[in-house]
Amino acid sequence: MRNWLNIGFVVIIFMTQTSCGNLNETPPTLSDLNTNTPAESTPMNTNIPSPSETPNPTPVHAGIWSEEAPMLTPRSAHAVTSSDSAIYALAGTDDIGKPVLEVEVFNGKEWKLETMLPGQGLNAPTASVVGQRLYVMGGFTAVSNMPTNEVQVYDLQSHEWSMAAPMPNPRGGHVAVVLDGRVHLFGGGNSVSTIDDHSEYDPETDTWRDLSPLPRAEGSPAAVAVEGKIYVIGGRSGYSDFGDVYIYDSATDIWAMGPSIEPRGTAGAAVYCGGIYLFGGESQAQMKNLDDVFRLDLKRNVWESVNPMPNARKFVRAVVFMNSIYIVGGSTVLATSHSPIGSASVERFLQPGCP
């Protein structure tokens, strides 16, 4: 029986932390470099409604939060993805900042060990399920600021690992979206700076191609695909957080502006119940993790407030599963470097009346 949670807000000691954010180590990491100068402009389609103002703090949508079975291992700066039958959690760092090699699977009732991630561990990679394969792309090696371009593939039927064609450039702290059976990667950073790269991977041919880049170089954005378009939300570079929403049209390879949000990085997003839901993240300007939840009404092109998460957190990983959104792991601590303190917490969000 699920325990219903009271809405809460947790902020523990402040130390600046991120993957593609604030790092205070030498040699310089990507987030030590404030590279928030916009990249070369990309043609923008302006034939869309004007951006909305910041949502009224009074919730318009009252969802139901519940606590679900926790993961076996705490993790943050990790990757989470879902299929029709399961949620997969992998990589990241645990509650003492060590790399997590265990790959876990959730069937709606409990978490189990699925396999072990090859190598020394990854920080801020992406994970995507296409067909019967799970693709793990990029990330920083272990707890370093050295990104990899490797693409590891786990076969969900044979339970074996293999390698796919490497990414065009090493990166970590990027975001991945599956659209029409292809994986799109946006932004992130290398060992020097944040980047604006947009790369598309075709699993059928095991090939990559470069597409129209992000309008600005940024790491740690959230992203979703809906109605043939991809929304890239927020993000950051160095000490600057962003609230811009960029909309990519795959049919024209052109970017457009969407309604903005309050600046944040490492938020989570999911398409659910006729809208785009955005969860938490971190505000470097406010020196805190965030618990707020917003919903983008796709018909009116405006953001609406939703009742907040039970716990403020960054590195939010949000996936749709069994007609709900699951928030898996993340960090409630303002920690430091590429080894954020992970949580095993799993919270479920249900919007009443959603078919």
Description:
There is one protein chain. The chain is an all-beta fold and 355 residues long. The protein has a single domain (3-350), classed as Kelch-type beta propeller (Neuraminidase), CATH 2.120.10. It contains no helices and 30 strands. The protein has a five-stranded antiparallel β-sheet, with no helix packed on it. A five-stranded mixed β-sheet has the order 2-23-22-19-18, with no helix packed on it. A four-stranded antiparallel β-sheet has the order 4-5-6-7, with no helix packed on it.
How many individual helices? 0
Give the overall shape, derived from the CA principal axes: globular
Distance between the termini: 22 Å
CATH superfamily: Kelch-type beta propeller
Main sheet? 5 strands, antiparallel
Q: Estimate the mean pLDDT confidence.
A: 86
- Tally of distinct domains: 1
Estimate the helix proportion, in percent. Answer: under 10%
Q: What string gives the helices and strands in order?
A: EEEEEEEEEEEEEEEEEEEEEEEEEEEEEE
Strand segment tally: 30
Strand order, sheet with most strands = 1-3-30-29-28
CATH class division: Mainly Beta
Q: Quote the beta fraction.
A: 35-45%
Topology:
Elements: E1 3-4, E2 44-45, E3 64-67, E4 79-82, E5 87-90, E6 102-106, E7 111-116, E8 122-123, E9 126-130, E10 133-137, E11 140-141, E12 151-155, E13 161-164, E14 175-179, E15 182-186, E16 198-202, E17 207-210, E18 222-226, E19 229-233, E20 236-237, E21 240-241, E22 245-249, E23 254-257, E24 268-272, E25 275-283, E26 288-297, E27 302-306, E28 318-321, E29 324-328, E30 346-350
Parallel strand pairs: 2-23
Antiparallel strand pairs: 1-3, 3-30, 4-5, 5-6, 6-7, 8-11, 9-10, 10-12, 12-13, 14-15, 15-16, 16-17, 18-19, 19-22, 20-21, 22-23, 24-25, 25-26, 26-27, 28-29, 29-30
